[in-house]
Write a structure and sequence with these properties.
Layout: H1 21-42, H2 47-59, E1 68-74, E2 80-87, H3 92-105, H4 109-118, H5 120-123, H6 126-132, E3 135-137, H7 144-151, E4 155-157, H8 168-174, E5 179-186, E6 189-197, H9 207-295, H10 299-327, E7 334-338, H11 339-356, E8 359-365, E9 371-375, H12 376-392, E10 398-407, E11 410-417, H13 424-427, H14 445-455, E12 459-465, E13 469-477, E14 513-514
Parallel strand pairs: 8-10, 12-14
Antiparallel strand pairs: 1-2, 1-6, 2-3, 4-5, 5-6, 7-9, 10-11, 11-13, 12-13
Helix pairs in contact: 1-2, 1-9, 2-4, 2-9, 9-10, 11-12, 12-14
């Protein structure tokens, strides 16, 4: 079979006196189409619309002389050509109708493209659907697609030349023996190729038709490369902006952490000083008050005053205890702990007091919760603080529900009350040291609970609705084996990241999250 090489380019015919008026009009029309198409392609920033405009320009009317056109683009690996778009009449009748409509209505290329964008039948036509289904691996055999890409040259397929080299899926789709294949080339880089034919009109494909098609293909390739460059720059810009946001956020978190640690260090120093300066005098005061209660004056008056003294001293002592507990770095005493047993023991400690306040404790304890290695004393204190918190929010009585469950490799502990709830403006501050809305109390209970949970590698979160109640959720890693000393988590810096992505509560590792 004789192969047809790309002949030396010939200039497109210009108007001369030997042409008839009809021929002159056809040349002018072609030049106008190329100009309109070129201007339109240069303004596009969307790849799909760019390709639609190119193919509609190739197939709109008789200017470029083609009935149908397909475009194939190389994938990211540059090993496959993927069918991207197919445009053209569905049959010969529609072919004549399209051309007649353009001629009768005097539509310009811009008019046709605007209407084309609104005609869904082209996007849903069988030609376009089947074009999308084609994915051809190049360089596996001697096919005309591979040659066009490698040689960066167009090929005119006829019954005598290259017909057997047309990829079978394309041959089966077009069902013609006369077509032209031209690559999309920009600055020596091949992006894909265009296939066009005249199946319905049967008009021969001339060299002038092929040259026009090559010009349009090259302009489209330049516009396509421009679009891809802009998209790449936008992706880079978005990536850079995201990195900047992450860096700024990380810096802010680091600064906040430094400030928090500085505050805690100051609080610790103050707490130690206050405790040493006040505890001894308080012990003496309480001792003398007890003697006064037993020995002197009017028994009724002395009893009343002494009782008040003792009550206030006990309260001050409790305040000091909270401050010291918060400031003190206590080494974790890790041992086997079953969370369900811990819950039962804690309820036993508080149920008498809660019963007097008309507060009912209910439980939903999962039997699947295993025995794990935690500091039982610290976690018990956390649960006591949360239950007391709930009780204080239910002045008229109510219900405290304690639930345990497992989620993946985490253990969940929830404490829910039916109290008055927490206002939105206070939700994000409840874990701050010394923040409280109560007339009595230090505001350290929840801060201490948060720190204990984080030192166990967990998180504590809260959800609340005013007038309905509050839920505290603690999520702890399931430690089924005793950790080595080096693995014992005793600070925020060593807190392990959490947790189950399916968990409806959003979380990040090693921090208390308020929702």
């Amino acid at each position: 079979m004789t192969e047809m090489e790309n002949p030396a380019p010939q200039a497109l015919p210009l108007i001369n006196m030997q042409m008839s008026r009809t021929e002159q009009a056809m040349v002018i029309n072609r030049l106008l189409v190329i100009q309109q198409l070129s201007l339109t392609l240069q303004t596009q920033l969307d790849q799909e619309r760019l390709l639609r405009i190119m193919l509609s320009g190739i197939t709109a009317g008789e200017a470029l002389g083609f009935n149908r056109a397909l475009v194939f683009l190389l994938d990211e690996t540059r090993e496959y050509l993927e069918g991207t778009l197919g445009v053209g009449p569905i049959n010969e009748e529609e072919c004549r109708h399209v051309w007649r409509t353009i001629a009768d209505r005097g539509l310009t290329l811009s008019d046709f493209i605007d209407e084309f964008d609104q005609l869904n039948r082209y996007q849903t036509a069988e030609l376009n659907i089947q074009t999308h289904s084609i994915r051809w691996k190049i360089r596996e055999q001697d096919d005309i697609f591979t040659r066009s890409l490698d040689e960066k040259a167009w090929f005119h397929v006829t019954p005598d030349q290259h017909l057997e080299q047309v990829p079978p899926p394309v041959a089966e789709l077009l069902e013609v023996q006369d077509m032209v294949i031209t690559p999309l080339v920009v600055t020596g880089n091949v992006l894909g190729l265009v296939v066009a034919d005249n199946k319905f009109s049967g008009r021969p494909i001339t060299q002038e038709n092929i040259q026009l098609l090559s010009i349009v293909a090259n302009q489209t390739a330049a516009a396509l490369a421009h679009i891809r460059l802009i998209n790449e720059l936008e992706r880079f810009q978005d990536h850079l902006a995201e990195k900047v946001r992450e860096t700024v956020a990380e810096k802010e978190r680091a600064q906040e952490e430094m400030v928090r640690r500085a505050k805690l260090a100051t609080v610790g120093e103050i707490a130690v000083t206050v405790a040493h300066e006040i505890r001894n005098p308080l012990t003496s005061v309480r001792g003398f008050a007890q003697r006064l209660l037993r020995r002197y004056g009017d028994p009724e008056t002395v009893h009343t005053y002494a009782g008040i003294i003792i009550e206030e001293v006990d309260r001050l002592n409790s305040v000091l205890g909270d401050v010291l507990d918060f400031a003190r770095n206590v080494d974790a005493r890790i041992k086997p702990v079953n969370m369900n047993d811990l819950v039962r023991r804690t309820i036993t400690l508080l149920e008498e007091r809660f019963g007097k306040a008309n507060i009912l404790c209910e439980t939903e304890l999962s039997p699947e919760v295993p025995t794990c290695y935690y500091d039982e004393t610290q976690l018990s204190q956390v649960l006591i603080n949360l239950m007391k918190n709930g009780a204080q929010a239910m002045k008229e009585g109510g219900v405290i529900l304690i639930r345990t469950a497992i989620s993946g490799d985490k253990i969940l502990l929830e404490v829910t009350d039916t109290g008055q709830g927490i206002e939105e403006k206070n939700l994000r501050r409840i874990f701050e040291p010394f923040f409280t809305t109560k007339t009595k109390g230090t505001g350290l209970g929840l801060s201490l609970a948060k720190r204990v949970v984080e030192e166990h590698g967990g998180v504590i979160r809260v959800q609340s609705e005013v007038g309905k109640g509050t839920t505290f959720r603690i999520i702890l890693p399931m430690r089924l084996e005793a950790p080595r000393m080096a693995e014992v988590i005793t600070s925020l810096d060593k807190a392990r990241p959490l947790i189950d992505p399916a968990d409806p509560f959003h979380t990040t590792g090693g921090r208390a999250i308020v929702e």
